[in-house]
UniProtKB/TrEMBL annotation:
Signal peptide: none annotated. InterPro entries: AAA+_ATPase, ABC_transporter-like_ATP-bd, ABC_transpr_LolD-like, P-loop_NTPase. The lineage of its organism: Bacteria, Pseudomonadati, Pseudomonadota, Alphaproteobacteria, Hyphomicrobiales. GO terms for molecular function: ATP binding. It comes from the Bacteria. Residues 4-227 form the ABC transporter domain. This is ABC transport system ATP-binding protein. It holds the Pfam family ABC_tran. Keywords: ATP-binding, Nucleotide-binding. It comes from Neorhizobium huautlense.
Length: 229
């Protein structure tokens, strides 16, 4: 479980006049559940890439606990992410040629922490996300099935932080609800800080706090219970 603190963050890309993301100050308490909402192009994925340490921070500071991500080299950031963050990206980042189960286990194997207990947990998560054929090659799976594999992989090591970008986007109503259940129950069980970018209103309403982005700026920050219907 880790808290997030962002100070004076500005993200710019070459050729653009204004930053695509500008956050002067943001804090997210350890163990809290936060929805990130906003229209297409508002900066949700950019913010996720920054807080997950996938994008280098050039202006500003981003702390997870005591760790300022800007202080880490790319290699150290990769190590730090593998240890602390369960990440579900929009395009999943799964590995063709491997089975679904091997995809779930791959990051743990690369970090040399895979053991019999994790293998058992991988199989259980595989079933919990509603999948049936662990040996199926990933490239033969449907988009919705791949999304569930990516979610199982992110939750395998009960990470201190879970970050998901549109985790229900490829799923039908029932599977989307099951994925929401799973994200919330693993987060509660492991005490993980949960950040979910989503257009899925039902999922957003299940999280404790809603941050709204527009043109790269936070324009709303409210506990979900206080949002007028
Ligand atoms: N590498 C890049 N170079 C230039 N512009 C970029 C780059 N990456 C993102 N942008 C721009 O930054 C803005 C924010 O993009 P981002 O992907 O964060 O939005 P989003 O809120 O996640 O959108 P969506 O809901 O459509 O996924 C967009 O205007 C996008 O075009």
């Amino acid at each position: 479980m880790l808290s997030l603190k962002i100070e004076n963050l500005a993200v710019t890309f070459p050729g653009l006049a204004a930053p695509v993301l500008e956050i002067d100050h943001l804090e997210i308490a350890a163990g809290s559940h936060v929805a990130l909402t906003g229209g297409s192009g508002s900066g949700k994925s950019t913010l996720i890439n920054i807080v997950a340490g996938l994008e280098r921070i050039r202006t500003g500071r981003v702390f997870w606990g005591e760790q300022n991500l800007a202080d880490l080299s790319e290699g150290k950031r990769d190590q730090w992410r593998a240890q602390n963050i369960g990440l579900v990206m929009q395009d999943f980042h799964l590995f063709p040629g491997l089975s679904a189960l091997d995809n779930i286990l791959l990051p743990a194997r690369l970090s040399r922490v895979a053991n019999a207990e994790l293998l058992k947990r991988a199989r259980t998560l595989f079933e919990t996300v509603g999948l049936k054929r662990p040996e199926q090659h990933i490239e033969t799976m449907s988009r919705g099935e791949m999304q569930r594999v990516a979610i199982a992989r992110a939750l395998l090591r009960k990470p201190g932080v879970i970050i998901a970008d549109e985790p229900t986007a490829s799923l039908d109503l029932e599977s989307g609800e099951a994925v929401g259940d799973l994200l919330l129950s693993v987060a509660a069980d492991a005490g993980s800080t949960l950040i979910v970018a989503s257009h899925d209103q039902r999922l957003v309403e299940r999280l404790g706090r809603r941050l709204s982005l527009k043109s790269g700026r936070i324009i709303g920050d409210v506990p979900v219970g206080e949002i007028a219907a």
